[in-house]
Prior knowledge:
alpha/beta, eight-stranded mixed sheet, single chain, flat, 13% strand, four-stranded antiparallel sheet, 13 helices
Amino acid sequence: xxAADDLRGRxxxxxxxxxxxxxxxxxxxxxxxxxxxxxxxxGEPELANLIDSALDLWLTEGRFVDDLEARLAEFxxxxxxxxxxxxxxxxxxxVSALCSPRMGDRRLRPGDEVVTVAAGFPTTVNPILLNGLVxxxxxxxxxxxxxxxxxxxxxxxxxxxxxxxAHTLGNPFDLDSVMALAREHDLLVVEDSCDALGARYxxxxxxxxxxxATLSFYPAHQMTMGEGGCVLTDRGTLGKVVESLRDWGRDxxxxxxxxxxxxxxxxxxxxxxxxxxxxxYIYSHIGYNLKVTDMQAAVGLAQLDRVPGFVADRERNWNRxxxxxxxxxxxxxxxxxxxxxxxxxxxxALTVRDEAPFDRAELIGHLEERKIATRLLFGGNLTRxxxxxxxxxxxxxxxxxxxxxxxxTFWVGCFPGLTDDMLDFVVECFHDFVAAR
Length: 437
């Protein structure tokens, strides 16, 4: 071992000691200690990887990115994974890839319609609009908060070319129906799995059914890199397009710090560029720079080892809340898993019934006063959001349940950082509130 290697080992040992001193476990005090709705669960493994990567001083993509992309593809069960700087960017890359000339006759063009839901996060829908496509919104089911299969079928029209939807709060949408529609109408499918890493449908990982899948590694999700995302696919052609769009739109596939991987760097003739123009500066797409750093990927590698445990903890916590809330069904629509699915729960969602003697705002106020954090179901009804006032879209049918979500739905946390004491306090506060009404 070299002196540098020895010193690196000592630095990592000292970092572990520092972490133990500065991050002690603190007791939970009901009503005083916060009960977060989500958050990162990190420790010595993540810190060690982060420092290890920092000592390399390789500040862009490198060995940790290569390892994480390979391991993510293997974990999900697909051949290609492309890291990027956020889940929102992953959705942008995925939808934009469907618009590439390299898609041939299946290429999405401005004015084509894409079926999705309005009860969700805006950056599932925004890439549709940014590419000149037309979102077609369908209503969701109360309880699962995923699209109703019958409404999906009714939404298909002559201009419909794709389905782009999220597995809401880690609860898989009806993939049997979606993929049957895709086959019948020759539709492309993007599974927004940003909230659903580790979820399964009929025993198979979500993200492996559609043409492309996306993940997010924001701290709220099943694993985190602080910021980050990923696009996954089994299709090599689509993968190359995603990679090009992520890397400035360039045609070259050389990794950072490398050149002439193709062996023909000064021999290409593409577009109207001069013959022999440097391949590193030929652009096949209107792209971006959406890459991650090796330091982010180093954290992600440590997190990926823990994902199975994190998913199991989320399920355990969700079930504890479900058991504690079961007797309150008179006042709430309680959440349920979709048929044939094993969710990777992102949160525990409730909808206040119309006949309840209280409204959502009163209840949320009660919980927040007791340091119990809550969140609404993202954008509620995106068609009612100010950002979409001038957007071009179509609504298939009506959005009755989506409006109910906007008015009456919220969720509390079930992430691995919550203890049994915290979850029991949450249940207790719900019961105290209902009893007082």
